[in-house]
User: Fold these one by one.
Assistant:
Number 1:
Amino acid sequence: MVTDLYERIQEGLEEKQKEITEFLETAPETEIEVCLCDDENLVEQHLQVIETSLEKIEDNTLGVCVVCHGYVDNSLLEMDYTAMVCLDHYSDEERRRLESELELSQVVQRALLPQQVPDIRGVELAAFSRPSEIIGGDYFDFFEFRDGTHGLVIADVSGHGVSAGMLMSSLQTAIRTMAPDTDSPAEILERINRFYIHNIHFTTFVTIFLARFDPVTLTLTYVNAGHNPPAVRRKANSSINWLKPTAPAIGLAEEFHARMETIGFSRGDSVLLYTDGVTEVLNFSNEEFGQERLAELVQLHADRSAPDLLQAVRQAVGVFGGDRPLVDDVTMVALKISG
Ligand SMILES: [Zn+2]
């Protein structure tokens, strides 16, 4: 029933509004900067769209077609509550694009895929994930792009528990569905943001680091959408640098431009990817573990194997937190260039 759908949209939007407002009010300044790439206007615009849509629900004008003044199709509205044109008025090209989004939307509601650490020539990988509850909001995955290069993703869904876990698995499915059609991490994330931002099933936001590793050129091309910056340790000069955000978090900002960066590696270089559950672990004096301690650990253990580096960080984080129960999911991926 139509009224049913509008009620669900209203509930979803109110939840989203609450979530984003709470984030802006309670998240530490640094986290807001990271999630938004320093531009708070982007989230203001998103809140404005939500506000306008809620008003339209009140006046019964949400989903009214600007061409024929009938109501747009329900399936369209579920996917994008800002839809203002019936399917009938779309061009062939627009319709094709939309159909692919609708298909994706269905695929995303379905599958849960197993995770696997692949065998990639020239690189050693190790991964670890421990949810703070039975179902976590963190995730990492490996997949292949169209050209056979290797995809690597680590992501953190805001919130915990079942809803965060469901969003996480839908995200994994979306990325795996899109990757075989492209070589571009930016293209995937732009599509995902478009798909999630006005979709009524997704009321939260996600930080993602998505990269393509080319074992022939030993390069990593990435987009960091508001995620904690991975640490890169260079063997040649023992330096550490951070792969800072190049795009806002997914589902948070109305405008989304994903800037891709490429870095090259030499033999012996390492990268540690992690979620904020690692750096935000607290000790008994309520001090955060922080990026600096993480950098020291990476420096200290980077000449060991990827699994050893991961194990060392895991242990140090556990000891620092006094082995208390986790308050956030903890996820890490270590990558080491072996040749
Ligand atoms: Zn129409």
Number 2:
Amino acid sequence: MMPVVKKTAFTTHADCLKHEMGAGHPEQPARLTAIEDQLIASGVGQFLDRREAPLATDEQIARVHPIEYVQAIREASPQSGRVHLDPDTAMNPHTLQACLRAAGAAVFATDLVMSGEVANAFCSVRPPGHHACRTRPMGFCVFNNVAIAARHAIATHGAGRVVIIDFDVHQGNGTEEIFEGDEHVLMASTFQHPFYPYSGTDSPASNMVNIPLPAGAGSMQFREAVAKYWIPALDEFAADLMIISAGFDAHQEDDLASLRLADDDYRWVTQELKAVAERHGGGRIVSVLEGGYSLSALGRSAVQHLRVLAGVN
Ligand SMILES: [Zn+2]
């Protein structure tokens, strides 16, 4: 393997392992362990700059979610047992802390990348965030981590244009709700359609590049969509920072959905995105874990993604 010149930060926290929604829930702590295992097995882990995620502050979260919502989540946090926020999303006594670490990781990674301390960063965190709307938890998500990072980059680092990429198999309805019509943000996504959460195709705003893919679509359709729709829009927008909602559940081994991507598609798309970021945004990329429920495919795909981010051959 070649040594890396610029650093890739890998931001996570042990608190993210303590959030747990019950036996058999696919959004489980073992997801993060699966990524760690593959980082060791592949040898890629040694090239990453490991950083502990801080807690997000109310001020940071409140750029996206009203403070009343943050307060309601705090008040819902149980002393013991579990409370459900929606049919798929529950809190245990550690969930609030995990949520603050997940959002905090995205903010911290943004600081590291925007200051030039690292070239790019990956946040290996849970809960995920892209279904979280301004005032509503949904689909395993409580706070919208990528949205909080984008607003942080704009508010504190002077980023004029931020692009959010979302290749999770589920449409990022929360991120879309937060940024539709926002001139500072372009969102480009692919997702299985029709499929949960059944959004993204009904006259999206002009800053949304939403590309639905039918069940069964695989590498060819995905790569065509990226080349034909994402790349020209990204080149035209010329963002200062790229944030990725990195969900790996469009993988063919993932039982939660029916797209047919392979490990190599995650290598390929990361290479394409990195090239765009190098053309326009000084290579600045903050990638944040979303879905991915086949533990083996998640670990392997995340390592493909990280291998390209870190420039490890
Ligand atoms: Zn997903």
